[in-house]
Structures are given as structure tokens and as C-alpha cells.
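Subject: for your reference before the review

Hello V.,

The reviewers asked for a structural picture of the protein, and I figured it would be easier to keep everything in one thread rather than splitting it across files. Below is the amino acid sequence we used in the manuscript, unchanged from the supplementary table.
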Amino acid sequence: MSRLKTNGEYRHLRSHSQSHFGQWIIIDYARFSNEESRYGITVTKKFGKAHERNRFKRIVREAFRLAPLPEGIWMNIRPLKKPQSTLDIKSDLDGFHTQQRAKTSC
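And here is what came back from the structure prediction:
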């Protein structure tokens, strides 16, 4: 699993994405069937000071380590509010995975 890195990759995702709203995060995602899974994390200064933004990014990276992405999906994670732990983010990601499995089985 790799990261979204360039401005062009984020723009490509944004132009093809749908959004999923969890309790703690917003997930912008798009399916690209022949691509490897990739993710990005966007945290604005409105969220808080640098150490708070960095903590959010660390928590999200750890949640991805615990619950890897399904194949062929690009995601960008944005915060709704400040999570207290990795489990908060992981619960939102699990809800997203459940929703995606339900969509693909229909």
C-alpha cells in the first residue's frame, strides 16, 4: 500500500471520488480496478497546531497498518473532529469497509 504524493494524484482522486462520513473522519474514495491501493491524509491548520495535526496523521497511519485497504481503491482521509485514539479511526475505517463489502455484494 502506497501513499498519494503529488498534487495531480490528489486532483485525480478528487475529480472521481465519492465521500463517506464517519464519526471522526471523512473518507474521499474512488475505485481504480487495475491500480494498487493508495491513501493520503489531509489535515488543515484549522484542525489545530502542528503537534495535533501530526498526531492525527500518526493515528491514521497506525489504523491503516492494523486494517489494510482493499485492492484497487484510492482514499484521502480528512478529520471531522479530534480523535482520542487509533481505535476511533479504526472503527470508522471498519464501517467504511463494511459499507464497501455491502455495495460490492449487491
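For the response letter, the relevant points are probably these. The chain is about 45% helix and 25% strand. The helical segments are 7-16, 50-66, 86-105.

Happy to draft the paragraph if you're swamped.

O.
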